[in-house]
Design goal:
Largest sheet of chain B: 7 strands, mixed
Structural class of chain A: alpha/beta
CATH class of chain B: Alpha Beta
Helix content of chain A: 25-40%
Radius of gyration of chain B: 18 Å
Distance between the termini of chain B: 50 Å
Strand order of the largest sheet of chain A: 20-19-18-21-22-28-27-26-24
Number of strands of chain A: 39
Number of domains of chain B: 1
Strand order of the largest sheet of chain B: 6-3-7-8-11-10-9
Order of helices and strands of chain B: HEEEEEHEEHEHEEEHH
CATH superfamily of chain B: Domain of unknown function DUF4159
Strand content of chain A: 25-35%
Number of strands of chain B: 11
Number of helices of chain B: 6
Helix content of chain B: 25-40%
Radius of gyration of chain A: 41 Å
Largest interface: A-B, 38 and 35 residues
Shape of chain A: elongated
Oligomer: heterodimer
Largest sheet of chain A: 9 strands, mixed
Chain lengths: 750, 264
């Protein structure tokens, strides 16, 4: 009733802003009416003798109200209200066309079957319902995005699920009608990353909700997956490596799995492990030594268990470049020590370590061992960065602080921080605080806390690995695991009692002094781009010489080989390359990022570099490197990779002044599909939630249509509602006229 | 008359030095202390100990003058150490230090000095002990034995220790001659009695040799100074009539041995 009287919902009139159409003649009319009303008043005054004062007031009020209301109607009042109205457009259905859709989806159907039953273009149960209400557009997405006319069959063969590309196509594509809502039908195994994040953000900003429909088994599918392997792209021949394998599984807690590492199809390591609780990502460290130079194909695989729904994700492959160029290590001693001899003996059989020893034998006399020619270290320990940076690792022994100039200390610091080299500070009577290093620049580089004064400490200490040391492949000194190999080693002499490591350092070896107080014996830490280590013993040679160490024992050799190689491993090359991704699908464009540095390891602009790409068929292509606009010394190039197999990037200096750098890309038709093969309803629900849509399991896809209605995008609209013709005003006019007539009759004026 | 007087003086000095050697062994100032944690390891105060090898203490190696291992001991050792400490930065124990060649503690001292090795007679255990010491990284310097008979005797002993390795001359371009001083000539260093003039050799050892035993990796394990007596030059360097030429050479090559032994 009220709505009929007011023509609109009274709330709308109440909340809206009232306006009058107020043309120029309206003012003339108002003045005219005002003049009439004055005349009226004067008229009533003329009849004043026949009417009392109150009657005149009533009649004047009624007539004035009538004329005022008439004036209001003539001015055509409107109410301005702001409302949210659906954006006109279409609904887009994005269908996952990737390989993983062939996996079981439940009820004996594949995920693809589930998807097509409901969303086949033009024929699916839900798509038919959608088409009755909306303009529906279908797109398939995998490693490509395609429009799907009605009746199109999908191949479900795409090697990737590039959802970002599908969404971007919708956002950027030119269509007759804008997309109002998106329906994503997938198993959730799509690539995440910044591009997807950006596309979802834009969807949200455009007010386009993404409704997701999950196809796949809702209950956990039984599967073990090798997620990722962490292994350097390039290693030194014979390096003791630790490959970190990240795994996850569902429904296999407590089961035993066998892990195998193969190098060029030969098994080099086997290990059994018991799988932990469900859905946890866990890591396994696997020892690995690569002895053959060149690109080596390293395969990590887990035996496929009978219950697993996906077997392809039990295998990971990496290509690792095994370098056969020796690392250069400089050992500097401030006095003759047997440690020099035995360190040289320890690594003498390792062709990949070139150890140069510089020993101060007298006050102003140095003895150089292992130098390439007479010019190497001719001036003693280098002060010049470019000379020092020729080495990959430094061992600073019993060298008092005063023996190193400010420039030399700064060069050592830059060696670790900028060049990425490794430095090991070795115990001795002139090392650490005992050598006056407590207040030098080198104290800042060391991974241990130094006292400021010498202590006079001298004790024999047994060396024991810490838990971190037991896990570190650097300290794998024998075939036995655990602390047992260390227990049989002779004690070593400690003259530098280090009591604490710095907060960011890791203590790998420790000991107890005669008072039972702990001593830090080996600690390491990252320092800038390199590694800093402290080994606070002065005679590891006892591990080689002692009578209870059999001649067949190689603990001393192994310890030093691993330690020096580990120190040198982060050392950056003058040219570094990184291809991304390292695993691609045919047709994918792969970026190569090259970093070039000068002799002081500062970013090098204008570098004369050449990049060549060798495809799996052996064809070589040359690519120009483009300097990055954002970062000096960085160059990029991209190339499509169409063939299946291994591609090799080689980047070198045109004048061959520095060794070339290599990177490998494995192109596989399967891509990552089976590594995201598990049904990921959480990812789908997350996308729906972030864009204002809803997530529907496949079983509930029928309610999608209503859901879209409720969540269609709207936009603010300002409406002007004319109210001059509302029934209430007409009734008021009639009522006022009648009231005046009745009153006049009562007063005997009519 | 003069010669017999000189010989008498020399014999007197030799007897005196060997008496001192015996007394020194009783109170060996090792400069080390036992480890309190029961590891029985020696806690050494210095990096380097000039360690003389004791052999033949069962009475089979000696004469009226005492054990042959102790010839020139301890004065030669201590005078050499004075020079070593003065001329280099080697953190050397300043006094004499002798150990039996089959003493397990020898493994704490990677340089071993032995003299008069024509009297060396090792049993199987001693030979094995010495072999393992050297293969583990020890370095043996042999000095003061003369002539072909002494060589034959010594070589027979070394064949027991290292049947697989040959004894070869160490060429002058080997680092052992250049580790601290550059030595380009091998001198025959005479004993104190023959240093004042006349022939410098003893028996038929007219030509001095520096020979060595290398392992299969080419590492020098044994350095043999044959037909020369470095120890006498160290011992008598403080007497006016001992020629500076010989004592200088002896100290130089002795220091080279030490620096080399600590470096290779």
């Amino acid at each position: 009733m009220l709505e009929w009287l007011f023509k609109y919902d009274p709330d709308v009139l109440w909340r809206g802003a009232w306006e009058l159409a107020w043309p120029a003649w309206g003012y003339v009319l108002a003045v005219g009416i005002l003049a009439v009303m004055v005349a009226w008043v004067l008229g009533y005054a003329h009849f004043g003798a026949r009417l009392g004062r109150s009657d005149r007031a009533v009649l004047w009020g009624l007539r004035t109200a009538l004329l005022g209301l008439l004036l209001l109607v003539l001015l055509r009042p409107t109410v301005v209200v702001e409302t949210e109205q659906p954006v006109p457009g279409s609904v887009a259905v994005l269908l996952d066309d990737s390989l993983s859709m062939n996996l079981p989806g439940g009820g004996g159907n594949t995920r693809a079957d589930q998807a097509m039953q409901d969303f086949a273009p033009g024929t699916g149960r839900v798509s038919a319902a959608l088409e009755t209400r909306y303009d529906v557009r279908y797109l398939g997405f995998s490693d490509r995005v395609e429009d799907l006319p009605a009746g199109t069959d999908l191949s479900f063969s795409g090697a990737r699920s590039d959802l970002a590309a599908g969404l971007t196509r919708l956002l950027r594509g030119v269509t007759a009608r804008p997309v109002s809502a998106v329906v994503l039908v997938s198993d959730g195994g799509f690539q995440s990353g910044p591009e997807l994040e950006r596309a979802l953000f834009e969807m949200r900003a455009a007010g386009v909700a993404v409704h997701t429909v999950g196809v796949g088994e809702t209950r956990a599918g039984t599967d073990l997956q090798l997620d990722e392997v962490r292994l350097p792209d390039s290693v030194l021949r014979g390096d003791a490596l630790e490959a970190t394998l990240l795994l996850r599984h569902q429904g296999l807690a407590g089961r035993q799995a066998r892990l195998v590492v193969e190098v060029d199809s030969a098994i080099v390591h086997e290990q059994n492990l018991v799988l932990p609780a469900d859905r946890e990502r866990f890591r396994v460290s696997l020892p690995l030594i690569l002895d053959t130079p060149g690109p080596r194909e390293v395969v990590f695989r887990a035996d496929v268990l009978s219950e697993e729904i996906v077997s392809e994700n039990n295998r990971l492959q990496r290509t690792v470049e095994v370098r056969d160029q020796p690392i250069n290590v400089l050992h500097f001693e401030g006095e003759p020590r047997f440690e020099v001899k035995f360190l040289r003996r320890a690594v003498s059989e390792d062709d990949n370590i070139r150890l140069v020893s510089l020993v101060r034998t007298a006050e102003n006399k140095y003895y150089r061992l292992g130098v390439e020619d007479g010019s190497e270290l001719a001036q003693g320990f280098p002060s010049d960065e470019s000379e020092l940076f020729r080495y990959d690792a430094l061992v600073i022994g019993s060298v008092e602080a005063a023996l190193l100039s400010v420039d030399q200390q700064a060069a050592i610091r830059a060696f670790v921080e900028r060049r990425g080299g490794g430095v090991l500070f070795l115990g001795g009577r002139h090392a650490f605080a005992e050598g006056g290093h407590g207040s030098t620049a080198l104290a800042g580089v060391m991974p241990v806390v130094l006292s400021t004064d010498a202590t006079g400490f001298r004790q024999q200490v047994r060396v024991r690995p810490t838990p971190a040391g037991l896990r570190d492949v650097l300290l794998s000194i024998g075939s036995e695991s655990g602390a047992e190999p260390w227990d049989r080693l002779p004690p070593l002499t400690v003259v530098n009692p280090l009591r604490a490591a710095k907060p960011g350092a890791t203590v790998l070896l420790e000991g107890l002094d005669q008072a039972g107080e702990p001593l830090v014996l080996l600690a390491t830490q990252r320092y800038g781009r390199g590694t800093s280590a402290a080994l606070a013993v002065q005679n590891t040679w006892r591990w080689q010489m002692q009578v209870d160490m059999p001649l067949t024992d190689h603990t001393h050799e192994t310890f030093w080989r691993h330690l020096l190689r580990g120190l040198a491993r982060p050392a950056a090359a003058r040219i570094e390359v990184e291809a991304g991704p390292s695993r691609a699908v045919p047709g994918e464009s792969v970026d190569l990022v090259v970093v070039a540095r000068d002799e002081r390891y500062l970013p090098l602009d204008g570098a004369d570099l050449e990049a060549t790409l060798t495809d799996p068929l052996g064809r070589v292509s040359r690519y120009p490197l483009v300097p990055s606009a954002d970062e000096t010394g960085v160059y990029t190039v991209a190339a499509p990779m169409n063939e299946i197999g291994r591609y090799e990037w080689v980047v070198g200096a045109l004048d061959n002044s520095v060794p070339a750098a290599r990177s490998y890309v494995d192109v596989s038709p399967d891509g990552d599909e089976f590594w995201n093969g598990a049904f990921n309803d959480r990812a789908l629900a997350g996308i729906a939630q972030r864009t204002g849509g809803r997530y529907y399991p496949a079983d509930d896809a029928g309610s999608l249509v209503e859901g879209i209605d409720e969540t269609l995008a709207t936009r603010p609209v300002r409406d002007r509602l004319p109210v001059w013709d509302m029934p209430l005003l007409l009734l008021l006019l009639l009522g006022l006229a009648c009231a005046e007539w009745v009153y006049r009759r009562r007063c005997a004026l009519a | 008359m003069h010669q017999s007087q000189a010989r008498g003086d020399r014999l007197m000095r030799i007897r005196l030095s060997r008496l001192l050697a015996a007394l020194s062994l009783i109170a060996m100032p090792l400069g080390a202390s036992a480890q309190a944690d029961g590891t029985s390891a020696q806690l050494l105060d210095h990096e380097f100990y000039f360690t003389r090898g004791i052999y033949g203490m069962d009475g089979g190696s000696g004469d009226d003058w005492g054990p042959r291992w102790a010839v020139d001991f301890p004065k030669a050792d201590e005078q050499f150490l004075v020079a070593l400490r003065r001329l280099t930065l080697v953190d050397a124990f300043e006094s004499h230090h002798a150990l039996s060649i089959d003493d397990p503690a020898l493994r704490d001292f990677p340089l071993l000095y032995m003299v008069e090795v024509d009297s060396l007679s090792m049993d199987a255990d001693q030979a094995k002990s010495l072999r393992e010491y050297l293969l583990a990284g020890g370095f043996l310097v042999i000095d003061d034995f003369w002539g072909s008979w002494a060589w034959t005797t010594f070589e027979r002993q070394m064949r027991v220790v290292f049947p697989e390795y040959r004894i070869v001359d160490v060429p002058l371009d080997h680092p052992v001659y250049h580790a601290f001083y550059d030595i380009d000539t091998i001198l025959q260093v005479p004993n104190v009695h023959q240093a004042s003039g006349g022939p410098t050799h003893e028996f038929d050892g007219r030509v001095p040799h520096v020979r060595g035993i290398f392992d299969e990796h080419g590492r020098l394990m044994v350095l043999i100074n044959w037909n020369t007596d470095l120890g006498d030059a160290w011992e008598w360097a403080d007497v006016p009539y001992y020629p500076l030429r010989y004592s200088t050479y002896a100290y130089e090559i002795g220091i080279n041995f030490v620096v080399y032994a600590m470096s290779y």
